[in-house]
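User: Last request for today: this protein with D-malate, please.
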Amino acid sequence: MTFIPKNITANGINVSYLDEGTSTGAPLIFIHGFPFNKEMWSTQLTALSDNHRCIAYDVRGHGGSEAGAAQFGIPQFADDLFSFMDALKIDKAIVVGLSMGGYIALHAIEKNDARIAGLILCDTQCAADTQEGRDKRKKTIAFIQKNGLEVYTEESLKNLFAPASLQSKKEEVSFIKNTILDSKPENICLTLQALADRKEKCTMLKDIHVPVLILVGKEDKITTPEAAEKMHREIKGAEMGIIDGAGHLSNLENKDGFNERVKSFLAKNFKS
Ligand code: MLT
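Assistant: Here's the final one, the structure of the complex with D-malate:
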C-alpha cells in the first residue's frame, strides 16, 4: 500500500513522516535503519494500523527529512525523536527501531524513559563499534567520497539480505537498492561517522522497565542473533523472537513472521 507522506517542523528541520490509523493507546513510532527511510515500514503500517496509530518518519538527512545544520550523531537523532513527538503532541510512544533505529531507541530511553511506553528492537545491538568496525566505516566513507554509491550499494545488499532472499525477494532487494542509490552520498558519510561514534548502551539495559520485544533475522550477519540474545539476557522480562528466512532486514524478508510476533506482543502488553 502507498501512503501519503506528511511534513512537520521539529528541532529546526522539516521532517517527512507517515501517520496511519488511530487509537487511544500509545502510538507506535517506527525508526528505520541505515541508510533507509520510512517506506521500509509500509507492510507494518498496513498490518498494524487497523488497531494502532502507526507513525514512521525519516531520520535527519534520510528520505524526505532535511539534514539541517546540527552535527549528525545518535544522541542528536534521539533528541530529534523527542522533538518530533513534541511537534505531534505525543507524550509517550512504543518505539520500534531497526538497527540504527534501535540504536536511536536505546539512546532515547536512556535519556527520558518517561516518554517510552515500550520498545521493539529489531536487528540491532547494544554494543558500540569495535576499533576494527570504526576503521572499516572510515574506509567506507573515503571510498564513497571517491567512487560514489554504486559499488557500495551492491556490497551492502549482500550483507543486508539473507542469501536466499537475494534470489527470492526481488522486489524488496530492488526497493533497498534504489533507496540507497537515491540517498545523498554526503548524508550517508555523515551517518556512517555518527554510527562509528555511538556509545555502547549495554550497561543501561538493566534499567529498562517497559515491555520489550527483541526480533532478529536468523541469518543476520550485521547485528547477529547472539547480539540480540545478549540484550535479551540483560533486559528484565524482554521477549525475543528469531525470524526465519531473514537476514538483517527481517521486517522485509519475512513480513508475516515479523508482523505476527509484533501483533502478539502488542496484544499482550498494550491496549489499542
Ligand atoms: C543499519 O541497518 O542501520 C546499519 O547496518 C547499522 C550499522 O551499520 O551499525
